[in-house]
Please model this.
Amino acid sequence: MCGRFNMISEDDVEEMHRIVAEINRRYQNTPERALMRSGEIFPTNVVPVLSPGRGGGTGAFLMKWGFKSFKGSGVIINARSETAEEKPMFSKAMRERRCVVPAQNYFEWEGHRQGKQKYAIRTAEGSLCYMAGLYRYEEDARLPAFVILTRAASPDVRFIHDRMPVLLNAGDVGSWLNAGQGGMWIEQHALSRVEYEAVQ
Model:
């Protein structure tokens, strides 16, 4: 699964600098821009997310992490890529509303007798993780909400957790956002090579 991730500052990576600059232009002097978080991101935080723009191409937009649950007051933060096309909560978004969440890494915890060990996990291919996601518009919400798609964990990190985000190459971001790609495409294109380190 993915319960937290790290949103680096725009100064760390050129691509993140471009994304934040676009967010600053789009949301200049708005209440929404004041909601944007960086550093360690928790469910319900607002962050930059990539999705198709109205004029074509890919744009950066602010979204809130987590779909409102059908039951109770909680939020749903992940969707299983193997079943998202069939689930009522995710099927429409899977067909029409794809997004990608850029991050430096995601966090996962390994449980053992002494407690839990936190790990930062990132792709071995580049400086940014591109996590495949879905988004939707919710009633009375100022911003769209998103979830992160997950898949079976790669052998490298299965000892930590049996699920991981669907991680994409930068070159596959456009293909994912243009929809029409389902579970088989994810299975063929999702990155498996990851690196991890124990953190506090």
